[in-house]
Amino acid sequence: MGVHRALAHILVSKLLRRRARGFYEKVYRDYSFTPEVQRNSDFARRHRGRKIVSGPRGSCYDLARIFTRLNRRYFDGQLDQPTLTWSQRRTRTTLGHHDGVHDTIVISKTLDSSDVPEWFVEYILYHEMLHIKHPARLINGRRYYHTKDFRAEEQRFPFYEEAQQWLERIARPRRTPRTRAA
Ligand SMILES: [Zn+2]
């Protein structure tokens, strides 16, 4: 049993809020309690910076708080809270993602910034929450995620128009200025 595999298993389990099985934990414990490894991990911890696994709480915005607010305001508090997390890396093309299999919403770390207005973070999270409410529809073997109902409800967001402008500003690379076609 490789230590890295055991460690990966524990991290993934934590991420999925499941307990790592005792066997994996023992393998990792046996390994991590040797003095040499303890020394190395202290060293690594000091040099790795603040956090390895991100959660809902960013340095600027707390996704769990925003989720609760949006849930109350637009979903009558009916949505179950999925696992909410900031992405590990900054990504400009994908600002949000809903993973139905793992019941997880990932929001790009790019948005965890005081340069980004809170209503825009709300909009991105609201969009992903709509994916929970409106599951993909299978039509002729194709999966449709943004159905008519989905789009209609999305446009009820008060800052919808402003959000579209921000989407272009953030997601579009700056070096290719383009005039918009009609
Ligand atoms: Zn979507």
Low-confidence stretches: 45-52, 176-182
Calculate the terminal CA-CA distance, rounded to whole Å: 60 Å
Number of structurally distinct domains: 2
Please, what is the average pLDDT?
79
CATH topology call of the largest domain: Zincin-like
Describe this structure in words.
The chain has helices spanning 3-15, 22-32, 35-47, 63-74, 118-133, 148-154, 160-171; strands at 83-86, 96-99, 104-107, 137-139, 142-144. The strands form 2 sheets. The protein has a 3-stranded mixed sheet with strand order 1-3-2, with helices on one face. Strands 4-5 form a two-stranded antiparallel sheet. It has 2 domains: 3-47, no CATH class; 63-171, Metalloproteases ("zincins"), catalytic domain (Zincin-like, 2-Layer Sandwich). The longest helix is centred in the last third of the chain and has 16 residues, at 118-133. It is built from 7 helices and 5 strands. It starts with a helix and ends in an 11-residue tail after the last helix. With 182 residues, the chain is mostly helical. A hairpin with a 4-residue loop joins strand 2 (96-99) and strand 3 (104-107). Helix 1 (3-15) crosses helix 2 (22-32) and helix 4 packs across helix 5. The protein is 46% helix and 10% strand. The structure holds zinc ion. Zinc ion is lined by residues 127, 131, 145-146.
Question: Summary?
Answer:
Helix content is 46%, strand content 10%.
Topology record:
Blueprint: H1 3-15, H2 22-32, H3 35-47, H4 63-74, E1 83-86, E2 96-99, E3 104-107, H5 118-133, E4 137-139, E5 142-144, H6 148-154, H7 160-171
Helix pairs in contact: 1-2, 4-5
